[in-house]
Amino acid sequence: MKRVVFNQKGGVGKTSIACNLAAIEAAMGYRTLVVDLDVQGNTTQYLVGEVDAEAFPAEAQGVAGLYRQTVHNRKMRQNPDAFVWETPYENLYLLPSSPVLSAMEKELESRYKIYKLRDALAKLDDEYDRVYIDTPPSFNFYSKSALIAANAVLIPFDCDSFARQSLYTLLDNIGELQEDHNPELAVEGIVINQFSAQARLPGELVAELEQEGLPVFQAYLSSSVKMKESHRERRPLIDLAPRHKLTEQLLALHAELERSVGRAAA
């Protein structure tokens, strides 16, 4: 299963959701790969810390290295697994981001390399049980590549009126990409993030989404300073605080995802 966590709006929790769900998968024994396609590299910093540019030249490592070898070649010279890094956590692996991706984007797009991530991940099907792809907060070459490569998309929603308006544009963009490039892509669901049960607006917004028939997961993720601590410590919540309320909510969300995988298999 390859999932992409995507929203064109920034600050909705894409990195937190992708990394923490992946860490839960790994803790449960699944070999799990996280792909960081965001130039900012927050996922990379979260899982492995600051990258030593001298030890790991950005243009030769991770996602940048994977794409670089395709620029003047139709076929990949190295197996995609050569660009994967280990993390400090058992069963959890990373294709790290790099600032170089920003400079590479125009060339990759002009050479129509948009299917290369899909091809690379297909070569890794036997290596990993689960793949999570973190994306930039824009509908650009990298996020489109992720949506083409994935089986399913998770959409974080941060209970904001502006987020609701952008959600419709997002769904339209995904629908067009499904039609043109990946008809097998499923909108697995909307992840309610930074939810406050005490505030009236979040509940009203979620109820309206459900009334419209949109696929909203029942496990809501609360706003918590513990997530910020998790970022600072560079430890996913399943490792840092396995009994915390937010960790339990993430586990409940993961259980919903597993049920959806079971239904798809049936």
Keywords:
alpha/beta, 7-stranded mixed sheet, 266 residues, Rossmann fold
Distance between the termini: 14 Å
CATH level 1 class label: Alpha Beta
**What's the rounded overall pLDDT mean?**
92
The appropriate CATH architecture is 3-Layer(aba) Sandwich
Ranges where pLDDT stays below 50 over 5 or more residues in a row are none
The total tally of domains equals 1
**What proportion of the residues form beta strands (DSSP E)?**
5-15%
Radius of gyration over C-alpha positions, nearest whole angstrom: 18 Å
**Main sheet strand line-up:** 3-4-2-5-1-6-7
Give the number of helices.
Answer: 11
Share of helix, binned: 40-55%
What best-fitting shape do the alpha-carbon axes yield? Answer: globular
SSE string: EHEHHEEHHEHEHEHHHH
Q: Indicate the CATH topology.
A: Rossmann fold
Structural class label: alpha/beta
The fourth-level CATH homologous superfamily is P-loop containing nucleotide triphosphate hydrolases
User: Major sheet: size, sense and barrel closure?
Assistant: 7 strands, mixed
Number of strands: 7
Explain what this protein looks like in three dimensions.
The protein has helices at 14-27, 42-48, 62-68, 100-110, 116-123, 141-149, 161-180, 200-211, 225-233, 237-240, 245-265, and strands at residues 2-5, 32-36, 85-86, 92-95, 130-134, 152-157, 186-192. It is an alpha/beta fold and 266 residues long. It has a seven-stranded mixed beta sheet, sandwiched between helices. Helix 5 runs parallel beside helix 6. It starts with a strand and ends with a helix.
